[in-house]
Automatic annotation (TrEMBL):
Protein known as: L-fucose isomerase C-terminal domain-containing protein
Domain of life of the source: Bacteria
Keywords (A to Z) from UniProt: Carbohydrate metabolism, Isomerase
Entry-linked InterPro entries: Fucose_isomerase_N/cen_sf (IPR009015)
SUPFAM superfamilies: FucI/AraA N-terminal and middle domains
GO-annotated cellular components: cytoplasm
Organism: bacterium (Candidatus Ratteibacteria) CG01_land_8_20_14_3_00_40_19
Keyword Zinc appears in the UniProt entry: no
Signal peptide: none
PANTHER family: FUCOSE ISOMERASE, L-FUCOSE ISOMERASE C-TERMINAL DOMAIN-CONTAINING PROTEIN
């Protein structure tokens, strides 16, 4: 079971309030009470723990805070700066190296903003809208979720699980040979659950194009097999070297439906054993409660558009628990077997293009869906989303920022939010 994220709420106050902002008339105790109540409510709603400290007002208080961190490390600190003379204390707390969200209701000059707001490990908010602190808490929780998550990777020929840890993020990886999926798939029978899920897909599909009912039942078994593997190896996310299995003709069906359904349920699941992509999916899931769509990028040089193409798109693109987008049931894009959902992305929908590139970079862009490309005539992967990318004069140039195949799409323009997350966790960003 994942551990609860533990944060500390720290109020910074001046020893005296006189002529400087916020002035002698500022009722600091009332405001501390108000902010404390809001923090407690956010903690309850987001299922995190926020311990509230007595207000800090001098260097000795920061030393005591530092000593307490040695006894019990924190996942993050919420700093509420309530005075123009509190910024040296804020700077000293940031130097403790704990991800810090700083809020001030305008009690700062531009020099204070410039000094701290671009610093790694910090997200600074100067605003009257205290509700924006909520996203700061969500970012800290996501950092903690990354550290406590385990990805199961099905790749290679190892018969004994091999455990590693992703540098910087702290995410655990448990790798086991791909044969494990073959064995698990072969053990799945046509139970009532399998038949019910297959019937659900047939009923909900806008159209069943190529697959037979038998093929859809087989595809449903991949979902059951993946769920069993996640349970056995205590995984929170999964990625599989599916193409390797297909090349060796070890499976009669692709796991596309299984991966799609797991993502609909909020379990990040990716193909081709791509670690960077599954890490991106975990981040998107916890920050925005939406599934990311891993895809191979190509471009239309005539229309100057980007195309993300793959066979494993989730259907609940607006968010986990939301309604599915329309989809067709198709065969796998490159072979006369398997079942893949051709998900019809909403035309006009704003999207974010994103990819974590280990160990310390995230590529980010935004755009708008202008259409869905059918296969055939395109004969690429079955879900192919055409995007007009924002601010890009020539889409051919986007390849410079991408180290490897696969970029993810997610509903909504989250560029600003992702840049804030990268700054807080301490990784650099590159814009597509």
């Amino acid at each position: 079971m994942k551990q609860e994220a533990v944060l500390k709420g720290v109020f910074l106050k001046q020893k005296e309030y006189g002529i400087n902002w916020p002035g002698a008339c500022y009722d600091i105790n009332t405001h501390i009470k108000e902010y404390s109540e809001k923090l407690s409510k956010m903690a309850e709603e987001l299922n995190v723990r926020i311990d509230l400290e007595n207000p800090l007002c001098d260097e000795n208080d920061v030393i005591k805070l530092s000593d307490s961190l040695k006894k019990r490390p924190l996942d993050g600190i919420i700093i509420i700066a309530l005075g123009l003379e509190t910024w040296e204390l804020a700077r000293r707390i940031v130097e403790l190296g704990v991800p810090s969200v700083i809020f001030t209701p305008y009690f700062c000059f531009t020099k204070h903003i410039k000094e701290l707001s671009y610093k790694k490990g910090v997200w600074l908010i100067s605003s009257l809208d205290f509700d924006t602190v909520r996203y700061g808490i969500e970012m800290i929780k996501t950092i903690q979720q990354l550290r406590s998550s385990r990805i199961v990777v099905l790749q290679g020929e190892e018969t004994t699980p091999k455990d590693t840890v992703i540098a910087k993020l702290g995410t655990k990886v448990r790798t086991i040979g791909s044969q494990k999926f073959v064995d698990e798939f072969n053990s799945v029978r046509e139970t009532e659950e399998v038949l019910a899920i297959a019937s659900e897909y047939i009923k909900n599909a806008k159209k069943v194009v190529e697959p037979t009912r038998k093929e859809i039942i087989n595809a449903t078994k991949t979902y059951i097999a993946l769920k069993r593997i996640l349970k056995e190896f205590e995984g929170d996310a999964i990625s599989i070297d599916c193409l390797g299995l297909l090349r060796q003709q070890l499976i009669p069906v692709t796991p596309c439906i299984g991966l799609s359904r797991l993502n609909d349920e909020g379990i990040p699941a990716g193909c081709e054993a791509d670690i960077d992509s599954i890490l991106t999916m975990i981040i998107l899931r916890h920050l925005f409660n939406k599934p990311g769509f891993i895809g191979d990028p190509t471009v239309d040089t005539v229309k100057n558009t980007w195309i993300n193409s793959h066979c494993t798109s989730a259907t609940k693109l607006a968010g986990i628990g939301e309604s599915s987008e329309p989809f067709l049931l198709r065969r796998f894009g490159h072979l006369p077997l398997g079942v893949s959902p051709q998900v019809l992305w909403r035309e006009g929908q704003e999207v974010t293009l994103v990819k974590f590139q280990g160990p310390d970079e995230m590529v980010i862009g935004s755009g708008k869906v202008i259409g869905n490309i059918d296969t055939p005539p395109a004969d690429i992967c079955v879900t192919s989303v055409e995007i007009k990318v924002d601010g890009v004069k020539d889409v051919r140039e986007t390849e410079r920022e991408i180290k490897a195949l696969h970029v993810l799409l997610i509903y909504g323009n989250h560029v600003k939010d992702l840049k804030a997350f990268c700054q807080l966790i301490g990784i650099r960003t590159s814009l597509i």
